[in-house]
Amino acid sequence: MRKRGSSMDIQGMIFDMDGTLLDSMGMWRTIFPDYFSRYVSPEQAEAHMAEAETMNMDTSLALFVKTYSVPATVQELKRGLIARAKEGYAAQKLLPGAKGFLDQVAAAHIPMAIASCTELELVNYALDCFGLTGYFDAVFSASMGYPSKSSPDIYLAAAEALGTDPGVTLVAEDALVAAASAKGAGFETLGLHWPSSRFSPQDMGEVCDVVLTCGWPGVTFDALRSLS
């Protein structure tokens, strides 16, 4: 765990879901290329996923259809992806230590929210599958009118729902662009870096107050609050 800056007065927490609480980014990195490869080359499918990683599904699919002149509608593609994703989530796992950390935050009576790029139907489905729904006071999906996490609007809406100001709200993210967006809006930020991340731990450290390079095991909420 790396740290920067002064101690954090955490009064609320906002979590991304895929790659932050669920070990599901590998699933998405398989589903998208496999699904898109029926229309484009594997290289083009991979390139599109990298470009669209922080977009909501409608925005991502609209860009895909436009860029590659795909002979299918956004809604047709979306129905297929949602069905594939529901099957995929059933085979996924919580990231080690994630539930224990949520238990600590809940025990400290800190309100929590989800802010995810994943379709709301899938967010609710996954949270229910893994028994996480009860931890969160609010659930926000980019499909609720937030085209991309490159804008902090989804985090600002989540903080408003929690009743906390950005400066005392910690955002946990595994996407560099998303973490930078939250930090730019005044949030405290915790970044998770994985071996499969498309950026370095140093890159994440440039925009985050705390960087976890080994996930949640061994991380305590009290330790986060006492960093200085």
TrEMBL record:
Q: Which domain of life is it from?
A: Bacteria
**Gene3D superfamilies listed in its UniProt record:** HAD superfamily/HAD-like (3.40.50.1000), Putative phosphatase, domain 2 (1.10.150.240)
Example GO molecular function: hydrolase activity
UniProt keyword terms in alphabetical order: Hydrolase
The cross-references to InterPro entries, in alphabetical order and at most eight, read: HAD-like_sf, HAD-SF_hydro_IA, HAD_sf, PGP-like_dom2
> Does Ribonucleoprotein show up as a keyword for this record?
no
Which Pfam families does this one have? Hydrolase
Recorded hits in NCBIfam families, A to Z, give: HAD-SF-IA-v3 (TIGR01509)
Its recorded name reads HAD family hydrolase
Q: Organism, per UniProt?
A: Muricaecibacterium torontonense
